[in-house]
Design goal:
By secondary structure, this protein is mainly beta. It has helices at about 15-30, 50-55, 105-110, and strands spanning about 10, 35, 55-60, 65-70, 75-80, 80, 90, 90-100, 115-130, 135-150, 155-170, 175-190, 195-210, 220-230, 235, 240-245, 250-255, 265, 270, 270-280, 285-290. It is built from 3 helices and 21 strands.
Length: about 300
């Protein structure tokens, strides 16, 4: 019989610090080779979109820009699955999504109280539904609020979606077909409400890595190939005066896991550790991000 999980022992945190280190390298040295902003192009994304789009540079009121770091801690209340008698049991979890922004990424200025620009908190609930032992659905919804510290502007933030994972590939079930859809939006005080929606489809494949020596830890390698179709493109500011469109995206990722136990660092646990390389619909480099779990579990 499946039992509820102790919620205080199952709070999984994505590595915000690691994301920040990677983003420092990407944004300060390469610049991504983005397009220059022109008058006829749409305005860059509002800072409140960081909770939806993820870590990056965003525009604030007054022409300023800020680097906003996002983190998605999750508290599992009950694991989804099937009992020994074949009864279906739903899974429940709570998301504690948060984001904090800074003006300057230089290490001496990073922790200065005057350097913080925005803060937001968008908690949410998730439901995991085991349709069959190989087919799981995951529904989620988040609603929260954020504020720009310097000028006092604020915004309501919301997003929801549905994900699907179907495992196949013989007895090991080492292939997964992934699909999903989402809808998200913001409602700034004194500003125009904005929304974005999209679809995702992809494949995941995993295989074991032979141990280098006897009694050594076993590892698995995970590959992911996916494509995201965005209905309404938004633009995110980068350093300087250039901007990156968030639109249709293809991605390939690779990660390594340890089946016996997750990777851990301090109070953080990771199902896997890897990276995902993304390009836009024209094949131009878009992002390199760290990967700590399956897309289905994000």
């Amino acid at each position: 019989m499946l039992k509820p999980v102790n919620p205080f022992n199952r709070i999984h945190l994505l590595s915000g610090l690691a994301c920040l280190v990677l983003s420092l390298a990407l944004f300060s040295s390469t610049g991504h080779a983005q397009e220059s902003l022109q008058d006829e192009r749409p305005e860059p994304a509002h800072w409140a979109f960081a909770s939806i789009i993820g870590t990056g540079w965003y525009e604030l009121d007054g022409g300023r820009s800020a680097f906003i770091l996002t983190a998605t801690p999750r508290q599992h209340i009950h694991e989804a699955g099937f009992t020994d008698s074949g009864e279906r049991e739903m899974g429940f979890y709570i998301n504690y999504d948060a984001a904090i922004g800074v003006f300057d990424l230089d290490i001496p200025e990073l922790i200065d109280s005057d350097n913080f620009s925005t803060v937001s908190f968008t908690p949410g609930l998730g439901l995991e539904i085991p349709v069959t032992p190989d087919w799981y659905l995951r529904a989620f919804g988040n609603v929260g609020w954020g504020t720009s510290i310097g000028d006092g502007t604020s915004a309501w933030i919301y997003y929801a979606g549905l994900k699907s994972r179907f495992r196949f590939g013989g007895p090991d079930k080492n292939w997964s077909l992934l699909n999903g859809l989402f809808y998200a939006g913001i409602n700034p005080d004194g500003g125009q409400a904005q929304s974005v929606s999209g679809l995702f489809t992809g494949l995941e494949f995993s295989h074991s890595i032979p141990a280098a020596r006897e009694n050594a830890s076993n590892f698995r390698l995970h590959w992911q190939l996916g494509y995201t179709l965005i209905e309404d493109q938004v633009r995110v500011a980068t350093q300087g005066q250039s901007y990156q469109s968030i639109g249709n995206t293809a991605e390939i990722g690779v990660a390594i896991s340890r089946p016996e136990r997750p990777f851990s660092f301090w109070f953080m646990e990771f199902d896997r550790v890897g990276a995902t390389y993304s390009v836009d619909s024209r094949g131009n480099f878009e992002a390199l991000t760290l990967n700590f779990t399956s897309w289905f579990d994000k």
